[in-house]
């Protein structure tokens, strides 16, 4: 193996893959210049979570960053003047096995620019996974990016070797996609997703009847959207998510804040990177849809097209619906308990279990782990004390915000006084 050439390719193709967040946290750039321990030199190792919650490290690379398309938001677009490279199928197989044997990684995340056409590219991605499984007996995690427009037959084959498949929607709205990636058609994302969904269902059904059925994409499928490249509202983004979750049984939608990379006048100006806070609010909303029983229309609608930046979406909903509170934690159903700001999924499950044996009071709620500095404004328990009283939602919001600000300042000043003490001792 020509290590110098492989290393060059690895640098280019791991760097190009870092914009895909559907497997998070790419490697950092710290060099080992003093012969110390470890070397984190941007070789595309990232971390991801498997279905059973294990954190696995993955080799995250593109097969190639050559691409026949010219999507305005993408660093790999054909008009971008960058260094290009392409791995051979066997090179990716060898790298994966070598990294695996050295214990650097537990799996592979493989994506690609589109060269020649969708099927030609998809065939090569599959060839890597197939060789790893069949020739190398590799049982590690494999996440393959599906190429929009790939044929049904190839999508069926991909799921036989990959743990997870994903097609990136990229731009949340059709009009945004037309503007920024006019060569792409939304149907080309939907077709492979539909195929994967149907295959997963079919294999699960066959498994109930037959003894030996091959596993098909056991970690399901996911997608990614770029946020902030085409001026869409939070409502447009989350309505798209809700549609894709429901229609294609997606495991995850990832939200990736647009990173300004070009001067193209169809894009936001350079320097206007999407704040991390917006990504966070979208993830919180996503969580409320998947685990807290909210419908997207309750959180975002014509009157509220964007999420509030100063409070989380659950508190925002509660403040807009004060007529539904207070609720009695000893009587309320799970659906309403999950809507109380300060009560998480774990706390709610504990409350439901504990109240079978006794009437819960504030002390019990505290020991359960409920965040009472928020929840107390929306609940009553064994006393009828209710902190909201006749306050308006604006007043309540300002009290909660000032509470959390003073809590934050108190924590900070505690931490600073610890440093003060430490300095005094060491002086
Ligand atoms: S097809 Fe994919 S890799 Fe190619 S320019 Fe568009 S987003 Fe980038």
CATH C-level of the largest domain: Alpha Beta
Distance between the termini: 57 Å
User: How many β-strand runs?
Assistant: 9
Oligomerization category of the chains in this entry:
single chain
Question: Helix fraction?
Answer: 40-55%
Low-pLDDT segments, ≥5 res: 24-42, 411-427
Could you give a short account of the major beta sheet?
A: 7 strands, mixed
Outline, from the CA principal axes?
globular
Order of helices and strands: HEEHEHEHEHHEHEHHHEHHHHEH
Q: What would you say about this model in short?
A:
This protein has 427 residues and is α/β, with parallel strands linked by helices. The protein has helices at 3-17, 89-101, 118-134, 152-161, 174-180, 186-209, 234-248, 276-291, 296-299, 313-320, 334-337, 345-354, 362-368, 372-375, 393-426, and strands at residues 45-49, 55-62, 107-111, 141-145, 164-166, 221-227, 252-257, 327-328, 379-380.
Description of the structure:
The protein has 427 residues and is an alpha/beta fold. It has 2 domains: 3-29 and 42-293, Aldolase class I (TIM Barrel), CATH 3.20.20; 310-427, no CATH class. It has helices spanning 3-17, 89-101, 118-134, 152-161, 174-180, 186-209, 234-248, 276-291, 296-299, 313-320, 334-337, 345-354, 362-368, 372-375, 393-426, and strands at 45-49, 55-62, 107-111, 141-145, 164-166, 221-227, 252-257, 327-328, 379-380. The strands form 2 sheets. Strands 1-2-3-4-5-6-7 form a 7-stranded mixed β-sheet. Helix 2 (89-101) packs parallel to helix 3 (118-134). It is globular. The termini are far apart. Residues 67, 69, 71, 74, 76-77, 113-114, 181 line the site of iron/sulfur cluster. Iron/sulfur cluster (SF4) binds at residues 67, 69, 71, 74, 76-77, 113-114, 181. This is DNA modification/repair radical SAM protein. Its cofactor is [4Fe-4S] cluster.
């Amino acid at each position: 193996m020509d290590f110098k050439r492989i290393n060059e390719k690895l640098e280019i193709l791991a760097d190009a893959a870092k914009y895909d967040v559907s497997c998070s946290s790419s490697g950092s750039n710290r060099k080992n210049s003093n012969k110390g321990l470890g070397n984190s030199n941007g070789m595309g190792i990232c971390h991801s979570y498997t279905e059973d919650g294990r954190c696995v490290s993955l080799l995250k690379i593109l097969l190639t960053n050559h691409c026949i398309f010219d999507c305005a938001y993408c660093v790999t677009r054909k008009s971008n003047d960058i260094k290009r490279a392409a791995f051979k199928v066997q090179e990716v197989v060898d790298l994966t096995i070598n990294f695996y044997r050295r214990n650097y990684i537990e799996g592979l995340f493989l994506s690609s620019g589109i060269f020649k056409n969708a099927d030609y590219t998809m065939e090569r991605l599959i060839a890597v996974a197939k060789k790893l499984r069949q020739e190398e007996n590799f049982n590690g995690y494999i996440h393959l990016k599906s190429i929009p427009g790939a044929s049904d037959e190839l999508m069926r084959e991909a799921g036989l070797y990959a743990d997870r498949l994903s097609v990136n929607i990229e731009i949340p709205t059709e009009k945004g996609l037309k503007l920024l990636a006019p060569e792409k058609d939304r149907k080309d994302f939907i077709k492979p997703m539909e195929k994967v969904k149907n295959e997963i269902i079919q294999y699960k059904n066959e498994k109930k009847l037959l003894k030996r059925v091959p596993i098909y994409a056991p970690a399901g499928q996911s997608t990614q959207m770029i946020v902030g490249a085409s001026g869409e509202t939070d409502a447009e983004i989350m309505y798209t998510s809700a549609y894709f979750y429901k229609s294609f049984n997606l495991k995850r939608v990832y939200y990736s804040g647009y990173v300004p990379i070009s001067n193209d006048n169809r894009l936001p100006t350079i320097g206007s990177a999407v704040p991390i806070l917006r990504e966070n609010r979208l993830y919180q909303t996503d969580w409320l849809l998947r685990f807290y029983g909210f419908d997207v229309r309750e959180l975002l609608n014509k009157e509220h097209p964007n999420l509030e930046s100063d409070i989380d979406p659950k508190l925002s909903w509660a403040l807009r619906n004060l007529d539904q509170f207070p609720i009695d934690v000893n009587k309320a159903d799970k659906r309403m308990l999950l809507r109380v700001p300060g009560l998480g999924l774990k706390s709610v499950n504990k409350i439901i279990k504990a109240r079978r044996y006794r009437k819960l009071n504030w002390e019990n709620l505290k020991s359960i782990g409920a965040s009472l500095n928020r929840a107390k404004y929306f609940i009553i328990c064994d006393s009828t004390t209710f902190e909201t009283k006749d306050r308006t939602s604006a007043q309540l919001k300002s009290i909660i915000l000032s509470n959390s600000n003073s809590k934050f300042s108190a924590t900070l000043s505690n931490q600073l006084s610890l440093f003060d003490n430490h300095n005094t001792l060491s002086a």
